[in-house]
């Protein structure tokens, strides 16, 4: 079996707002590298291995105070933002195409350091983003989450949904120093992998440590009342190809510091890289920026070893070539 692997020369991961983390990585693709890992043996090895000791926690300069939302007109908007954050498919359904929640990537209702907390994100904008080549406001950054991570469409600037989410983030950030590099921002730093990230090793980690919550096929889990309990990590119900979690380095950093849920920093760095490779080597809804050519779309928006878009996995069709159109439930309902 042959598979495109990544050769790493240097890595630096720095957190950023929203569902993405930004890093600078020097690397190159080396196609047709033989894979000799055996999934069953790897699963048994991972399951039997001792859990590594948690990494030392980094110093956090700020933690949002656990205080009640004010009972006034401003507080009503903050509370609405919190509701949207925790269940956008219900409270912002006009703009959401899947059942992921903002809190799926920004844990503890956007409060948890090292999980792209919203209080740190609020302090980080306006900022230039290479993703769209201009200085973004915080509201614009939120628009991107709806378009890519929520596989929906961007609320217009000034829309009550954006105002509510921005108000909630501002409320969380009250009392924080005005420092866009504040500790706790973005995702946990992760060292470069000792070995090239590997699909089969990642599959073993996934089945041993992730499948219980996210299902063996990555489709997630539902509660008894039918509501989404754990998000889909690939497939039509997940984030689309334009989302930040579609970047291997972003996914690895998030996984290292936060997964399995409640057991952050228990996977080794190598395991985090490997399982991120595995997750991002599955198809998902099409990138909204699709040019009608997978090759051209990769060239314009995914020209990095960190993206598996347009790459063949295990001899299959290039990822993205068989993706369903973006928009999910919005498209199905004729609202996109």
The end-to-end span amounts to 40 Å
CATH topology: Cytochrome Bc1 Complex, Chain D, domain 2
* Average of pLDDT: 86
- As a percent range, the share of helical residues equals 25-40%
**What count of helical segments does DSSP give?**
14
Order of helices and strands: EEHHHHHHEEHHHHEEHHHH
Task: Label the structural class.
Answer: alpha+beta
CATH architecture: Orthogonal Bundle
Classified by CATH, the class is Mainly Alpha
Output the radius of gyration: 19 Å
Beta content? 5-15%
CATH superfamily: Cytochrome c-like domain
Largest sheet: 2 strands, antiparallel
Unreliable residue runs: 1-41, 46-50
User: What number of structural domains do the residues give?
Assistant: 1
Main sheet strand line-up: 1-2
The beta-strand count equals 6
Inertia-based shape: globular
Organism: Candidatus Burkholderia verschuerenii
Keywords: Heme, Iron, Metal-binding, Signal
GO molecular function: electron transfer activity; heme binding; metal ion binding
InterPro entries: Cyt_c-like_dom, Cyt_c-like_dom_sf, Cytochrome_c-type_DH
């Amino acid at each position: 079996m042959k598979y495109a692997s990544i050769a790493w020369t240097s890595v630096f991961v720095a957190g950023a707002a929203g569902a993405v983390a930004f890093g600078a990585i020097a690397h190159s693709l080396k196609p047709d590298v033989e894979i000799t890992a055996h999934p069953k043996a790897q699963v048994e090895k991972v399951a039997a291995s001792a859990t590594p000791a948690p990494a030392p926690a980094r110093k956090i300069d700020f933690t949002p105070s656990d205080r009640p939302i004010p009972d006034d007109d401003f507080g009503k908007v903050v509370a609405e933002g919190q509701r949207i954050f925790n269940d956008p498919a219900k409270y912002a359904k006009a703009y959401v195409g899947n059942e992921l929640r903002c809190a799926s990537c920004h844990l503890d209702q956007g409060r948890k350091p090292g999980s792209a907390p919203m209080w740190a994100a609020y302090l980080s904008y306006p900022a230039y983003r290479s993703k769209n080549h201009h200085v973004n406001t915080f509201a614009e950054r939120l628009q991107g989450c709806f378009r890519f991570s929520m596989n929906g469409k961007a609320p217009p600037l000034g829309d009550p949904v954006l105002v509510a989410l921005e108000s909630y983030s501002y409320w969380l950030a009250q009392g924080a120093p005005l420092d866009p590099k504040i500790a706790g921002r973005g995702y946990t730093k992760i060292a470069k992998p000792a070995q090239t990230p590997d699909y089969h090793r990642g599959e073993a980690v996934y089945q041993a440590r992730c499948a219980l919550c996210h299902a063996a096929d990555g489709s997630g889990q539902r509660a008894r009342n039918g509501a989404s309990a754990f998000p889909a990590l690939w497939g039509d119900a997940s984030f689309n190809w334009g989302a930040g979690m579609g970047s291997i380095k972003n996914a690895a950093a998030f996984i290292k510091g936060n997964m399995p849920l409640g057991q952050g920093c228990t996977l080794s760095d190598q395991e985090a890289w490997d399982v991120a490779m595995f997750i991002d080597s599955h198809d998902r809804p099409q990138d909204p920026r699709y040019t009608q050519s997978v090759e051209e779309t990769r060239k314009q928006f995914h020209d990095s070893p960190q993206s598996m878009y347009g790459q063949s996995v295990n001899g299959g069709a290039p990822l993205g070539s068989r993706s369903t159109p973006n928009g999910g439930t919005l498209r199905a309902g004729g609202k996109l």
